[in-house]
Amino acid sequence: MTRTIITLCLISLACFAFTGSGIRNYQCRKCGTLVWQDRTPSYSGCPAGGSHSWVNLGEVGNKNYQCRKCGTLVRTKQTPSYTGCPAGNSHSWVSLGNVGNNAYQCKKCGTLLYSERTPSYTGCPAGSSHSWKKL
Fold this sequence. Notes:
Elements (H helix, E strand, L loop, with lengths): L1 H14 L8 E5 L5 E4 L16 E14 L5 E4 L16 E6 L3 E5 L5 E4 L16 E3 L1
Antiparallel strand pairs: 1-2, 1-3, 3-4, 3-5, 6-7, 6-8
């Protein structure tokens, strides 16, 4: 879980400049890897074995969403696709608010995101509500 959160944080920082540029969020339903690209990523080399099984979650945008089941954090223009949650069946997305310049981290699940204001407390993957701390 910690490795996933750190990876998501690093990718989020690296992809901040892509907002609104036609880049899409792709997630492998087998291993949970999240990639931002303008086309479907390579299917080879899934760490869970065999080939990746990519799901297009939607275009990168200015709204933060997190799945309360698998903890995946994405920035999209609208509610991401519910298809292919690595934790099983479909994602359960919660809108955390608009992307901004203020860094917040949840004390319970470790999610780090950038938001205009304090993100929504709803739907912490660690259970119940997020406990945000402004960094």
